[in-house]
Amino acid sequence: MKLEIRKLGHSEKPPMDLLLKADPSEEMIEKYLYAGECYLAEAEGELVGVFVLMPNTAHEVEIKNISVEEKYQHQGVGKDIIKYVVRIAKLEGYEDLIVKTADVSKDAIKFYEKMKFVYDFTVKGFFVQYYDEPIMENGQQAVDQVVMRRKL
Fold it and tell me: How many domains does the chain have?
C-alpha cells in the first residue's frame, strides 16, 4: 500500500474519531493539536491513519498521538508512519524522537521497541492524575505512562 502523508489543512477538521482511538480525552487532544502539527496518512484518497507531532525542545520532538484505522492495522501503516516521522524529524534538525504510552499497552510498547525506541522513564500515576475516566486496556487500568526515546 502506497501511503501519502500530508499536514492537515488549515480549513480541515482533524479526524477526532480516529484520534480518540489513541487518546480518549478530547480535551487532551485539543491541547496538543493546538501546540503541534496534525498529519494525515492516506492511501488511494482514503484516510488510513493520523498522527500529531509536537516539538518539546529545540532538540526533541514527540509523537503525541498515532492511530491507524482498524482495517489497515497490521499492514505496515504504523511502521511507514514512524519511518516518515524519523525522516522529517532528522531533516528539521531534531536529535531525539519520543513517544509516550500506557504501561499496560504491551502491544504498543513492543511495536515501538521494533521501531528502535528504548525505554526512557515512567511517569507514575499519569493516567489517574490527568484523565477523568479510567482508561482500560487488556483488562487492566492504565495508571503509569511509559516514555520511550529514539535517538535520530
Answer: 1
